[in-house]
Amino acid sequence: MELTCIVCPMGCRITVEKVDGRLHVSGNTCKRGEKYALQESVCPMRTLTTLVRVRGGEGPLCPVKTREAIPKAMLEEALGVVKGVCVDAPVKIGDVVVKNIAGTGVDLVATANRERR
Amino acid sequence: MEYRYDIVIIGGGPAGLAAALSARETAPEAKILMLERDKKLGGILQQCIHNGFGLHYFGQELTGPEYAQRFIDQLEAAKIEVWTDTMVLDFSSEKVVDCVCAARGYVQVQAGAIVLAMGCRERTRGALSIPGTRPAGIYTAGCAQRLNNIEGYLPGKKVVILGSGDIGLIMARRMTWEGAQVKLVAEIMPYSSGLNRNIVQCLVDNDIPLKFNHTVTAVHGQERVTGVTVSEVDPATRRPIAGTEEFYECDTLLLSVGLIPENELTRGAGVEMDRITNGAVVDQFRQTSMEGVFACGNVLHVHDLVDNVSNESAIAGAAAARYAMGQKAAGQVYAVKAENGVRYALPQRIVAGDAGKLDVYFRVDAAYRNPSVQVLCGDKVLYSRKKQIMTPGEMEKMTLDQGLITGDITVRLDK
Amino acid sequence: MREYDVAVIGAGVTGSAIARQLSRWKMKVALIDGAEDVAMGASRANSAIVHAGYDCPPGSLEAELNVKGNALYTRWCAELDVPLQRTGTLVAAFDEEEAENVRALYERGLKNGVPEMKILSGEEARALEPMLAENCVCALLAGTGGITCPYEMTIACAENARKNGVDWLLGRKVSAIRGTEAGFVVTAGYEDIIARRVVNAAGLFSDDVARMIGDDSFTVRPRKGEYLLMDRSAKAPKYVIFQTPSRLGKGILVSPTVDGNSFVGPTAVDQTDKTDTSVSQEGIDQLRRMAKKSAPEMDFRNVITSFAGLRAQPSTGDFIIRPSEADGRMIHAAGICSPGLTSAPAVAELVEKLLMESGLTLTEDPAYDPHRSHIRRFRDMTREQKEAAIAENPLYARVICRCETITEAEIVEAVSRGARTLDGVKRRTRAGMGRCQGGFCSPRVMEIISRETGIPMEKLTKFGAGSYLVAEKTRSGEV
Lengths: 117, 415, 479
Description:
With 117 residues, chain A is an alpha+beta fold. Chain A is 18% helix and 35% strand. Chain A is built from two helices and ten strands; from the N terminus they run βββαββββαβββ.
């Protein structure tokens, strides 16, 4: 597979191929690029940042994120869960909004404070 | 005058927050006031709910609101007075700040030093003069971001984005995640001013095409946008090439075509401005041509990373505090010039005297492979370094030994 | 069915001025428009010039009403709190052929009864207007020429009319008019109303309205005019600078606005579509090129927006202000192209006279108040006035539009005066008209309109039906 490295502004075009049953990375110019490319080819990981509805808060929404990156393939399912979530103010940064979102083992946490209105 | 403060900071976004904290550290007893026009501190960070902030400053990846909250929490502990819902109308060279605020009415504040931290605004369609109709559904990316992330409304369902600046890329992903279909990102330049990481994680991840050397040449629709015409441009002239027009059906056009420092107050006060950065001309302390008036963050020049804004604002805040406490920098003033591939360098002036290290920030005027950055002072080469790639979208930093600066210096590329 | 003495169809500057003029009589008047606000056609996008009147063919109705209207502007603007600056207008010539044209315009002006005209040498003209190109050979100065704000004039007339009892029937497209013994049955949107007289001030659509009663005595063709508007920070001329008509075309003008901006325009493109107000790249290029001729210092890096308006060009070559030949109870005020804005007060007086002649008996309304004031602009207040305004209404301390320093109090007032759309608020307050073009304040203005009117955000529009601003709520969970 071909991908653009995001580790630094160079943006190397990296190729990952299976050679003799092992993954072979080429086109990178540094070690960090190789590590990134290997992860991307095995299981790309992304942090989901989005919003949930707040009841009784200063605004209608509170931003949230997955505490850690989750598999890219799970983003869609996680987003589906988020749309139906509504939390009660007050909310503090780091509060768990959804435990183990979409079975990823990662919690969805608040990324802003929301006082009670 | 009823209100007197040693340091008045105009703007409670990332620049103002960092400047205030740094001023407090420098002058533990100073009376510091922050003026913010919104109801909350944090500025634009509050609507930047994506992550990627703070890697340099905190060594940790944070979302915008988290990054802001770290500063806001410290601010409360640092006993800095904050007036929210307060709009500054103007300030004078005597450092009298006129402002209006719901809680206090029309107020004049006498400042010992002023830090300008008003941020920037987005370029609009009008500035580009895009032909066509003027229907609803044309938004700057930041405006769409506010509608979506603060108000909770999806601006539209079929989207074309003009400009591949970071806010545009981020909004491409955001709107896709909210159920909209982003059909295209068109970029008039042969490269993106956005980060690679955003191109990959916002566009590639979501199969959104990015076309370089393309721009929107017409907007269609009487009431609401019904589509846009996208044309390829000649890379040399940036003019559309006839016959390359393609119609994209959409209900929304987002613009991510650049930011402009918000310097109406600065100009109104008569501070010397830089035509390239659209910000004030400053020395290494971020002091403007008006004594005791400092500037930092996007009001000074547009940054790509908030971490850099925080660093720069800490310099301005500390210098403002020293000034307010009576320590004024004085000495021979040397000019910093930019030429041969360097679009601008900042600070534009250096006050001689200090021996330590001096960081100079600059941007190049086009994409270069394997250029060499040089700093010359007369015949002397103060700095020379080879780079693999340089693009206008990436702000560069270099550290000079200030003791070596004995005259005007020139920052240039050896291409 | 509601009954009116007069139904004025068209809430542009012509219709609104007529409605205001009629509101001094004891009678029921309706001001009807298909758009959801007043000033939505030619009155929202034109050159904003109060013409002196040297341009119109002598003996024409245009010439007569232009000169009369120009004189009436002083009183109308004073009563209605509408900005009027008699800057003086210059028609500049850059070669001998153009100088000949300037002298011809001067002669024509004398025939039309235009006062305060003078032919200046190139040096004299440049001494008055330093932005004028150096090769100017001579110029016609008309002291009574000046600038106003066309949508403000329209809004002011309509507001004053409403204050004096006129009903606004907006968002009601007239689809049929049927003559009866008592007058007409006018189908305005979802409602039929009865009107003893109809005034046809429907601008571009006035020929369509005439045809509804079988009158096909004229047609109206749209002529597009494109404009480029500059930021206030750009260098602006002091005078309105016209070019002379020449072999290369009619020429464009470079002008200051009453708000401190400047603009160049208009182009003149004949078209058939009465709704197409798109701006073309050719038009933009043409404006940039042509403006350089009279004012080479215009800096187009300061363009904040481009827009286009459609002038209603009558097939007769002159304003059509007369009773319809098909039914004398319909009075046409049609084909009002340039100088329609200047002529509006005089058109209103003429239409009033024609209505009297048509058999309406008019009795003066002692309660008539000719005065209307603009929403108080925070920005223009002195410090003391600002303090007092905030003390009285704290919403004056909340600046919503940063570029133009427009406060929440002004926006709330605009909504209370009938603004229901983003553009309606913009035209009444200038919120969103500055250099960021609403990028910052639009979501905030939307919130205020929604809060004040109860219209949900999803139903708010930019300027009426179809111009919705947001598609949907992103999170449905009930609060």
